[in-house]
Amino acid sequence: MPSEGGARSATLSDVARRAGVSIATASKALNGRDDVAPATRRRVVEAADELSFTPNAMARGLLAGRTGTVGLLTSDLEGRFMLPILMGAEDAFGAGQVNVFLCDARGDAIREQHHLKALLSRRVDGIIVVGRQTDPRPSLGQEMPVPVVYAYAPSDDPRDLSLTPDNYAGGRMAIEHLIGCGRTRIAHITGDPAYAAAQDRLAGARAALDAAGLELVGEAMFSEWSEHWGRDAAAMLLQRHPDVDAIFCGSDQIARGVLDTARDLGRSVPDDLAVIGYDNWEVLSTNSRPQLTSIDANLQQLGRQAAQRVFDAIDGVDIGEGTHHLPVRLVIRGSTIPRR
Amino acid sequence: MPSEGGARSATLSDVARRAGVSIATASKALNGRDDVAPATRRRVVEAADELSFTPNAMARGLLAGRTGTVGLLTSDLEGRFMLPILMGAEDAFGAGQVNVFLCDARGDAIREQHHLKALLSRRVDGIIVVGRQTDPRPSLGQEMPVPVVYAYAPSDDPRDLSLTPDNYAGGRMAIEHLIGCGRTRIAHITGDPAYAAAQDRLAGARAALDAAGLELVGEAMFSEWSEHWGRDAAAMLLQRHPDVDAIFCGSDQIARGVLDTARDLGRSVPDDLAVIGYDNWEVLSTNSRPQLTSIDANLQQLGRQAAQRVFDAIDGVDIGEGTHHLPVRLVIRGSTIPRR
DNA sequence: CTGTTAGCGCGTTCAG
DNA sequence: CTGAACGCGCTAACAG
């Protein structure tokens, strides 16, 4: 019978009895209140140790009105963007005294409602809602008994607080980098046009091109966020516009495909053709030849900030509202800058 | 002040007062006990609805002695293997009435101890410990007040129950498939030799080769689990042993590198050279040219099973002990079988 | 300094 | 059928 060795956890009254004091005294002794004799405290602490006493957080929470837990409501754990956010949040909370309830709704609204109910019944002190895309998602409503922060996917209600990466700035940043590298004939291969991410990045890219008096070479190419599409699109592009000198890709996966085709067609990267990806998914971006310059959305930081906001809200601080677009950053590697 | 609209959650006594009954009656009405008049029940349910009453799970748990929560203690969320396991477990639990506390120890023993304490103080009904490698990890000990199941990384104490993928069988399966494809000159490129996974897979491979009266071409090549190493190793291998007709790779990343080099050197896959990966990481395995045959460890299922074991243990069922090696499966794609 | 008392929100006896 | 009373484990007021 594995993992059943220990008896049921000791209670405070067990400790008190063993130390020969009252329950209240034991409580004070263990919680570091200063109105208890040193000798008594030692006895109590010893007894607690011997029984490996662990205070019951539920009983404590019942009194305090706070549970020291928050809910992390994700719509789809599978998504690559979920994990860093989740890590950031878990990290920020774990450092304090709060624990995280993880709920995966699997993209199903019913299940989400179910999980939400469960979280509320567990009296979480706050909730972070993490969506899988940057498209706005339905708000949980304004009648929540606890603070809610939306991460990655913003809420569609501006009265909610949402934290989402700044894809527009990312698109701009990518183009500005390419221009800074002396490129002027820039094309764009990206994913599903139904994604706000695709549109926002493109808009940012257009803005940067405009500002430099340039235009995209050909139309922006939309399809899916895959390496295969990157390969096919690049082949089409390079045939129709052999004179492009840079390609801004909507994802690292697409960029990997583009690199592949460039190699097949004998185009040298970055000298002859610069390629920039998006997401900075290191498994892909650091293992390509050459390594991939990319835009990093700082997702872990986003998760951390979401956690911090929830913290603040719990402490009664006004955390504001609206959708905040968090800064992204450029990670430069060999696909845009020749290594010396 | 977003997400603060609702007042504090209603309590059962609020509901009772509004319905004009006693707390006890309200409780019975809401919990479907049959000793309450239909009319009364309706009044109570209505009142509960209007106040959007949600029972306090803590108070309930205090009485029941069970919390309906389990702890998921991971050593490193970043790991690719964590996520499917976590999903499987969350899935299995989410279907029932239990919620999951997620704790990431970041590979730090101190932090793990800290989180463990937190979980126990929250009186989780059970714990799943998920490690990032298949090498045995230190046991949490036999004195746990709740059942513990180890997933992926087995415990080093045979009295614990551990669920881990069968890497030996995976290695065997890979080789048997290659032999089944008519290959006889098989080489092995894998990752860090310090990983049990690398050793176990190799052992399984050797067993399968033995059984067929074959030997590995050259020595097994160890280094890191990266695409770069796959490329470099393949180049060395193909130069030294141009006659190899198949390569068993210790990971899909390595296999991607191998495919890359094969293409550079004009070796056609799978006709001239069959390549098989490991992990079935779909982003990599389905986006290569040709797509990658691989071994899938069924991690999501592993997570689900771990959850099921914890469930059983909570219900008092004896879940056994020892390290169980769960079956893996072969996923055949174009890198070993020519598409017709 | 220590012990007694009173709840936190709920489910469960057991009398009415 | 309904309600009053008790207790889950703990902390915060008070008394002693």
UniProtKB/TrEMBL annotation, chains A, B:
The record's listing under SMART domains reads: HTH_LACI
Specify whether Transcription is a keyword of the entry: yes
Q: Where is the HTH lacI-type domain?
A: 10-64
**Does the keyword Chaperone feature in the UniProt annotation?**
no
Mind listing the UniProt keywords for this protein, alphabetically? DNA-binding, Transcription, Transcription regulation
Q: Which Pfam families match?
A: LacI (PF00356), Peripla_BP_3 (PF13377)
Entry-linked CDD domains:
HTH_LacI (cd01392), PBP1_sucrose_transcription_regulator (cd06288)
Name of the protein in question: LacI family transcriptional regulator
